[in-house]
């Protein structure tokens, strides 16, 4: 195992460094390595760290320069979280990634003023990433808008339990009234944990956010504006990239989200000519689906839609379910290009699933049986293994569909996502 972890570490590290620009790599190589302060052991000292730029040091893990303890920390992070926890800890408690959105976004005026609850689920998360995210939220969100941050720990394994660390952090920073810290003693899974956590929130708007994100300047205001214009909107930021080894932040391409008949998520990139019209760089645009990890919506609309399907297991397809419910039941999903949030795209998904179950397929079958109607045959043609799935009770979801008098999948294809069903030309 040790050999495998070390080999993987070296391969990924080399790949990561290859992605960096030559000039950036050379600049980093000139700097001494950053001193390592372990936040688990000395939280006060870690919270006092300045940024690597201010300390004039290199926070990335250059293996030849690491001592034995640093190598162990780096390997532990890659094994536990699928990212380099050493680089993250050396990066420190806060950084300003600056203005990542298009320059025209600076001229946009926003007047939406909803009280907002940020809801974060964490299971086996690194302390440094979640604290840097919280610090960023406090620093770069207007105080008048940020009501609270709900931190819901979904039964992390013993060595990764963060509740006491988070409570200590809240006390040190004077944030006891701003942070709602809760722990589930048994594993709910991401989907059910999101629902339970959302019920602790009191803000008018809920922002669901993964536990390894960093917000940029003026990230929230562009998300709230479409919700003011239409309260039944789900607003999405552009998801930027945080490297899992170097933790370098880079802007991603603006895209919308979709899925295929197997209900597998995919990015849909907009043609370059779309952005030649200046206003298209700043105005929200419709998206058939959403990634799931980052979204904003009215709390009452989330409740109206029946929240997430509580019959789903652990992870998978909840983003497609919520997208379909929004579109079919009177709402919409939009991308706000002036909102930018960075996300650590890990090397792999490090969590355990439910033994003996493909939860993503199980959940997708529930979505297909509830929402696809006559088109469910397309799903089972794409995922024939789904025919053998015993998918459980979907009566609550059916009740939501009937109560809200939701439209059918034919309407969705014709009005929202015509690309899902390509036109077939008759043979001559």
From TrEMBL:
Transmembrane segments: none
A single BP term in Gene Ontology: protein O-linked glycosylation
UniProt keyword list: Disulfide bond, Glycoprotein, Membrane, Signal, Signal-anchor, Transmembrane, Transmembrane helix
Residue intervals of the Glycosyltransferase 2-like domain: 117-305
Subcellular location: Endomembrane system; Membrane
Pathway annotation: Protein modification; protein glycosylation
Descriptive protein name: Glycosyltransferase 2-like domain-containing protein
Pfam families per UniProt: Glycos_transf_2
Topology of the protein relative to the lipid bilayer: Single-pass membrane protein; Single-pass type II membrane protein
SUPFAM superfamilies the record matches: Nucleotide-diphospho-sugar transferases (SSF53448)
CDD domains, per the entry: pp-GalNAc-T
Example of a GO MF term: Notch binding
Annotated signal peptide: 1-21
GO cellular component terms, semicolon-separated: Golgi apparatus; membrane
Family of the protein in this entry: Belongs to the glycosyltransferase 2 family. GalNAc-T subfamily.
């Amino acid at each position: 195992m040790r050999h495998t972890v070390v080999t993987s570490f070296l391969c990924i590290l080399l790949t990561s460094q290859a992605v960096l620009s030559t000039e950036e790599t050379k600049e980093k190589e000139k700097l001494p390595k950053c001193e390592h302060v372990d936040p688990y052991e000395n939280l006060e000292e870690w919270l006092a760290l300045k940024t690597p730029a201010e300390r004039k040091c290199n926070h990335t893990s250059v293996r030849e320069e690491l001592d034995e303890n640093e190598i162990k920390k780096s390997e532990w992070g890659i094994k536990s979280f699928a990212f380099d926890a050493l680089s993250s800890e050396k990066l420190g408690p806060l950084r300003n990634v600056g203005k990542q959105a298009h320059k025209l976004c600076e001229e946009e005026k926003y007047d939406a003023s909803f009280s907002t609850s940020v809801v974060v689920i964490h299971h086996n998360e690194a302390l440094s990433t979640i604290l840097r995210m919280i610090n960023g939220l406090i620093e770069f969100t207007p105080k008048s808008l940020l009501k609270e941050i709900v931190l819901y720990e979904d039964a992390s394994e013993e060595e990764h339990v963060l509740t006491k660390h988070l409570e200590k952090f809240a006390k040190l920073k004077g944030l006891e009234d701003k942070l709602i810290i809760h722990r589930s003693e048994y594993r709910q899974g991401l989907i059910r944990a999101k629902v339970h956590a959302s019920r602790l929130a009191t803000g008018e708007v809920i922002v669901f956010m993964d536990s390894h994100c960093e917000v940029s300047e003026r990230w929230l205001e562009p998300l709230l504006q479409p919700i003011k214009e239409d309260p039944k909107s789900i607003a999405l930021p552009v998801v930027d990239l945080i490297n899992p080894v170097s933790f370098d932040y880079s802007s991603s391409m603006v895209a919308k989200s979709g899925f295929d008949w197997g209900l597998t998520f995919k990015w849909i990139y907009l043609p370059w000519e779309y952005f030649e019209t200046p206003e298209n760089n700043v105005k929200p645009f419709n998206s058939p689906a959403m990634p799931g990890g980052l979204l904003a919506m009215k709390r009452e609309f989330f409740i109206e839609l029946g929240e997430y399907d509580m019959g789903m297991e652990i992870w998978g397809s909840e983003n497609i379910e919520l997208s379909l419910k929004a579109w079919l039941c009177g709402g919409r999903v939009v991308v706000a290009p002036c909102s930018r949030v960075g996300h650590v795209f890990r090397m792999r998904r490090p969590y355990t699933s439910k033994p003996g179950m493909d939860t993503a397929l199980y959940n997708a079958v529930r979505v297909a049986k509830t929402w696809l109607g006559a088109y469910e045959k397309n799903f089972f043609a794409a995922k024939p293994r789904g025919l053998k799935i015993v998918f459980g009770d979907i009566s609550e979801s059916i009740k939501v569909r009937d109560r809200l008098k939701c439209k059918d999948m034919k309407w969705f294809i014709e009005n929202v996502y015509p690309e899902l069903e390509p036109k077939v030309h008759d043979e001559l």
